[in-house]
Specification:
By secondary structure, this protein is of the alpha+beta class. The chain is built from eight helices and 16 strands. The protein starts with 7 loop residues before the first strand and ends with a strand.
Length: about 300
């Protein structure tokens, strides 16, 4: 790679790196993105694309909920401009979400969270089991109830990342293939990003490397407490009418039926380092969780993907 100079170097062409390049480009800032694989090659391209403001941690909900709610609002505002700028339709749409309870303990936890969310102005209600099954009769008879909200959304995560990358390029960003090896400094000042093919001079860098951020620790002189976690997802073709509501329970989720006629069901949470190979153990665990909370609607388990 020839030496280049940029206002800002971004390491990683996942969704975060591409989004930063896009917004900086709109502000007139020249960026160069360095990616060792391809755009959205890891978690950004394989994530289920669920946008759920309810993920705010209860003890920090006062801080987190405004941020997660604003994030969903930004998705609503960004969809049409990105579509016009790139022609890439990443299928952003708002979705209803049912957070299911199958035990009294789960029901109490969900209702406690529901009350916290309501006090913050979040529109969410508790439904009993009969009301839940009226929404979708394929949900297991074991369901006690669920929190119901229409304040959630979904995207095709790979196409979303690709749209951000292409739009960033329209605003002057360069996306280059390269292997990040470190940072070069003069005292406390950054002077260059080091790649296996050479250095690129810069005074500002963004490490959008996800679990690979630890590679920069030796250059910075302090540890970065980030480690990979493997998550496997089943992509399932289901019988019957399309699913119009997302489902969540414990650490599991089902998306609505996507444009590819599949439901995405996940996910495992495995401390497996950077192993990205799907496993039969992960498939069986997901299949059991999926089938155990539904009634005879799995027609065909097509594939799974596992990425840090």
């Amino acid at each position: 790679m020839e030496a280049k100079k940029a206002d800002v170097m971004i390491i990683g062409a996942g969704v975060i790196g591409c989004a930063i390049a896009y917004f900086l480009g709109k502000a007139g800032v020249k960026t160069v993105i360095i990616e060792k694989d391809s755009i959205g090659a890891h978690a950004s391209g394989y994530a289920p694309g669920i946008l759920n403001p309810q993920v705010a941690i209860p003890e920090h909900v006062g801080i987190m909920l405004p941020m997660t709610t604003k994030s969903l609002q930004l998705h609503k505002e960004l969809y049409q401009p990105l579509l016009e700028e790139t022609g890439i339709d990443y299928d952003f749409h708002q979705s209803a979400l049912l957070t299911l309870a199958f035990t009294e303990i789960e029901a109490n936890e969900i209702m406690n969270r529901l009350e916290i969310l309501k006090r913050q102005g979040y529109k969410i209600n508790w439904l009993d089991g009969d009301a839940v099954r009226l929404i979708d009769g394929r949900i297991s008879d074991m369901v006690i109830g669920a929190a119901y909200s229409e304040e959630a959304g979904e995207v095709d995560s790979y196409r979303y990342t690709l749209a951000l990358a292409q739009a960033a390029e329209k605003y002057g960003a360069e996306i280059c293939n390269g292997q990040f090896t470190g940072l070069k400094r003069k005292g406390t000042k950054l002077t260059a990003v080091q790649l296996s093919s050479g250095d690129i001079a810069c005074e500002c860098v963004v490490l959008a490397m996800g679990p690979w951020a630890g590679l920069a620790a030796s250059s910075l002189g302090f540890s970065i407490p980030v480690s990979p976690q493997k998550g496997q997802t089943l992509r399932v073709r289901a019988s019957g009418s399309p699913f119009a509501t997302m489902l969540a329970w414990n650490a599991n989720y089902n998306t609505t039926t996507r444009n590819d006629a599949l439901i995405y069901h996940g996910a495992t949470h495995e401390d497996a380092g950077f192993d990205e190979e799907p496993s039969s153990e992960g498939r069986d665990k997901l299949h059991g969780a999926f089938a155990g909370r539904s009634r005879n609607y799995i027609a065909d388990c097509l594939s799974q993907a596992a990425h840090p």
